[in-house]
Amino acid sequence: MRLHPFFSNTNLMFTFQRYAPLQSEKAGYMNDPVETYMNLVPMVVEQTSRGERAYDIFSRLLKERIIFINGPIHDGMSHLIVAQLLHLEAENPSKEISIYINSPGGVVTSGLSIYDTMQYIKPKVSTLCIGQAASMGSVLLAGGEPGMRFSLPNSRIMVHQPSGGYQGQASDIMIHAAETQKLKDRLYDIYVKHTGQTKKSVEKALDRDNFMSPEEAKEWGHIDEIVESRPKGDDA
Q1: What is the pLDDT of residue 179?
Q2: Share in percent of the chain as helix, strand, coil (round to 5)
Q3: Do 152 and 96 belong together in one domain?
Q4: Secondary structure element (H or E) that encloses residue 16, with its range
Q5: Does residue 45 sit in the same domain as residue 78?
Q6: Which of 4, 160, 176, 201 is catalytic?
Q7: Number of domains comprising the chain
Q8: Are 65 and 5 spatial neighbours (Cβ–Cβ below 8 Å)?
Q9: Per-residue pLDDT tens over the stretch 180-220
Q10: Residue 164, pLDDT score
Q11: DSSP 3-state assignment of 14?
């Protein structure tokens, strides 16, 4: 099992490329140095027998079957994560995939589309919490392959029940409230499945924002192991 795959080709160089035009440029203002920095993405220049090949850093990591879930989970993110999972399955259905999670959570249905794809595809999917896995992010962390759910020692895991706000006619509000209740019950079932806790224990744990250390999350059954450094020999 490869917890943290290395790059297979060590003859690499780095450069940078922008994600998109800066907002200040669109408005005709002077560039903000902080905004400029935040819009840079590292580029990896790889020396091969056929010459140089350039990748953005995330595409290069995808070649090593590493997927990042970073930031709020929403439709724009979820379809990219799902596409990456399906691509890696098509490339090699028997080789594991690693998902690194640093997320405060987000839209439940967007997160469930990622979760369902993780369960659907053939490759085993390992999950690793770096920073935080809160709300929907914690569901994805728990949804990794049993025995392959990890956390770094200073990460935080937070679970709670879903929330939502609606306005409109009273009958529409009641419909949305009923749907939220169904989603809550479904999320409870997912936590029960992956943590080994009882439904009653899960309901109690998710009643309010419940922050856990990696040690507490491991005891609760949310993760399997806390890792502090790359295992020796884990370089394939």
Answers
A1: 93
A2: 40, 25, 35
A3: yes
A4: strand 12-18
A5: no
A6: 160
A7: 2
A8: yes
A9: 999 999 999 999 999 999 999 999 999 999 999 999 999 99
A10: 81
A11: strand
Kindly state whether residue 4 falls inside one of the protein's structural domains: no
Sorted by sequence, the CB contacts under 8 Å of residue 104 that are 6+ apart come out as 71, 72, 132, 134, 135, 137
Residue 236 inside a domain? The answer is no
Instruction: Compute the Cα dihedral for 23, 27, 31, 32 and give only its sign.
Output: negative
CB 2 within 8 A of CB 236: yes
The answer on 79 and 15 residing in a single domain is no
Per-residue pLDDT, 196: 97
- Ranges in the chain, pLDDT < 70: 1-39, 233-236
| The residue to which tokens 């949310």 are assigned | 222
- Residue 229 neighbours by CB distance under 10 Å: 9
> Quick check: 142 and 195 in contact, CB under 8 A?
yes
pTM for the structure as a whole: 0.81
Query: Rounded to an integer, what is the distance from CA 168 to the centroid of its chain?
Result: 34
Same domain, 29 and 69: no
110, 126, 135, 138: which is the annotated catalytic residue?
Answer: 135
Per-residue confidence (pLDDT) for residue 18, from 0 to 100: 47
142 & 35 share domain: no
Judge if 187 and 219 occupy the same domain: yes
Claim to verify: residue 201 and residue 115 sit in the same structural domain: yes
Convert 9-26 to b/e letters by CB count within 10 Å (16 or more is b). Answer: eeeeeeeeeeeeebeeee
Active site residue 160: yes
Range of the domain at 20: 9-57
CA distances from 217 to 29, 61, 134, 137, 231 (A): 47, 27, 12, 14, 21
